[in-house]
Amino acid sequence: MNQLRCRNLQAGDLMLKFNAGSAVNRIIALGQRVAAQLNPEVVHAGVMFDNTYIIEASGSGIHASDLRVQNAAFGYVVYRARNTAIANGAGTCAKMMFDIQTRHGNLKYSVPGAVQSLFPGRRPAPHSPGEMDQLLDRILEGRTHRFFCSQFVVYVYQFVAEQNGISGAGLFVLRDAKVSPSTLASLLQSNAYFDEAGYMMPNER
C-alpha cells in the first residue's frame, strides 16, 4: 500500500477512517466488535469532493471537513473507483448533498440508523433506481432525511452508478441503510469496481 498525501487524492475517493480514540469512535468500534463484524476499527466513512475536502455524515449532519485542519489527526484507508465517471460523479453528488444540507438543514445524522446497521438481520434488496430517484427528489424539495456515515457513502455511489448505466446493486449488493463502516470496509476489499489506492497517516497531509 502507498502512503498518500492530499496531493495524491482525487474527487470521489472513498475514505474509511480508523478509530482515533475518541469516545464516539471507541463506542462504534466496540459495537462492531460485539456484532462480530470484521474490521471493527474502521469507524467512519466519507467521500472526497476534491483532494482536501471530505464530505461526510456525522454529528451535525452532512458537512465538509478539511483533511488538513479539522480531520488532520485521523488516519484513513483510501479506495478509488476504477470508473472515472463514477468517481467524479460521487464527488459531485456528495458536494450537492452538502449544499442541500447547508441551505435546508434537512440532512441530519441518524444515530438509530447507525446502531441498527450493527445488527441488520436479514439484508433487504438494494433500493431500485426509482426508489433512489424518489429519495433524491424529496431531499431536493427540502424534506428531512437522516443519514449515518456509511449509509451516505453507499447511497451516493449507488445513485451515481445508476446514472452511469451500472446497477447500484451490482456496485454494492446491499441496502444503504444496512451497512456499517466495518461492513463497507469488508465489501471494498473484494469489490471489482474499486481499487485500494493507499492510506493516509494521522497528521501527515
Structure explained in plain terms:
This protein is of the alpha+beta class and 205 residues long. The protein has a single domain (6-200), classed as endopeptidase fold (from Nostoc punctiforme) (Alpha-Beta Complex), CATH 3.90.1720. The protein has 7 helices and 6 strands; from the N terminus they run βαββββααααααβ. A 6-stranded antiparallel β-sheet has the order 4-3-2-1-5-6.
> How many structurally independent domains?
1
Would you tell me the structural class of the helices and strands?
alpha+beta
Strand order of the largest sheet: 4-3-2-1-5-6
* Named CATH architecture: Alpha-Beta Complex
The amount of beta strand, in percent, is: 15-25%
The CATH class turns out to be Alpha Beta
SSE series? EHEEEEHHHHHHE
Quaternary organisation of the protein chains: single chain
Rg result: 15 Å
Main β sheet profile: 6 strands, antiparallel
DSSP helix fraction: 25-40%
> How far apart are the first and last residues' alpha carbons, in Å?
16 Å
Reported by name, the CATH topology is endopeptidase fold (from Nostoc punctiforme)
**Overall mean confidence score, pLDDT:** 95
* Tertiary shape: globular
Provide keyphrases for this structure.
single chain, six-stranded antiparallel beta sheet, 205 residues, endopeptidase fold (from Nostoc punctiforme), 7 helices, globular, alpha+beta
